[in-house]
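Notes from the pairing session

We agreed to fold both candidates in a single pass and log them together. This is the raw record for the first candidate, unedited. Please don't reformat it; downstream parsing expects exactly this layout.

Candidate A
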Amino acid sequence: MNTTTNYSAEISTLLNKLIDAGVDLGGRILGALIIFIIGKLLIKWLNRLFAKILIKRKVDASIQSFLKSMVNILLITMLILAIIGKLGIELTGFAALLASAGMAIGMALSGNLSNFAGGIIILAFRPYRVGDYIEAATGAAGTVKEIQIFHTVLVTPDNKIVYAPNGPMSTAVVTNYSRLDTRRVDFSFGVEYGTDFQQVREILMEIIASDNRILSTPEPFVELGSLSDSSVNVTVRVWVKSSDYWNVNFDMNQKVYATFNERGISFPFPQLTVHQG
């Protein structure tokens, strides 16, 4: 009888301990969930506040995106540590676990560390900024939207997002099409042999003069460029604002095609002359 009573007492004690442990664990999980929800809202608010401060202080857009990305990662890291602490996981033990896995983590993060260093180099030497259209030897091309701590975010002309790692971008050859205010647009127009070059030149100068987007300084260049197998190629070089480059390029081709047809200037086409022996 006493043995049965003892077993019942032990089972009761065990059940009480399990219930207490379950209640404690449930409380910790609930607390961690509350911390997560409040933390996410707080991080969102702090990110907005930080962005407003950067705008108010007129910080360069390129530096803004980098700092916002870094601050966001730091805040998320702090939130993760707070949740771990609430769950009852000893941070010292957690740190020891990270230290024991340091070699593997270091190898895994080596690429990101080089990307972080690349981001610092990009911000320091400014080969490009937010809003510039660039083309890199890595194959990435587009308008710079953001410079984050690990990646440069580009938007391509057909509206695709490209995430280019900062490490390779900081060491690759980068062509910046937006840095200077003006660009030169080059054309080559072919006309038939026997066409009066001076007439062609006058027509091209008229077309150039009618477009107020084409700059007068440096002066437009129109000269006979080369004599190919089936055409006389006229070289045209004009200077425009960088923002007008593509519009002038397309409009000029259209105007030349229409005007040459109106003035009787013929475009060449490949010809093959066969001589009978």
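Candidate B (folded immediately after A)
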Amino acid sequence: MKDKKDKKKKNSAETAAAKAEKIGKSDIPEEDRIALEKGVTEKLFEDVYLNFKLHFYQMVFKNFEDREATLTTVESFCMEVIYALGNPTVNQFATFIGISSPNAAYKINNLIKKGYLNKVQSDTDKREYHLQVTEKYINYYNVSASYVSEVLKNCRESMSDKEWSEFYHALSCIEKEQEKTVKRPSHN
């Protein structure tokens, strides 16, 4: 197993080095070229992702001192999915996370009782209900969102317009790749 991971890292590093060669070494600062050749870009991205998550968890636990911890771990993940899906129906939520409708209904009812979620009847199909996060959840979620905004604002201030444009392009490429595997339900 370790050999496969090492081979994959080597191939990734070779691919990055080939891309750097294609771009032209003169276009990339020496420090960045060496990093590309060593395949550390993936590690750097992983570290950035983990730091955002760790900051979120740190702030959630810090806020436990000021209030009762009302969401279980599973409920927190359910709320994050519901928020990310943008007012999904009960069925869309259940399908996305791969659980039965009765199991989803149980989780949803607990979240409604705790004040983090509302069910809103569809205007077009009265049999259908959409899940809508409440202000209580938004306040909980903003612990993370405000940190992301702060980090990006500071990055923007330290980057040239060209660097910011390249950063945008890189994020767009990442999002397009994610869209191949993360299928969000469409809202009609």
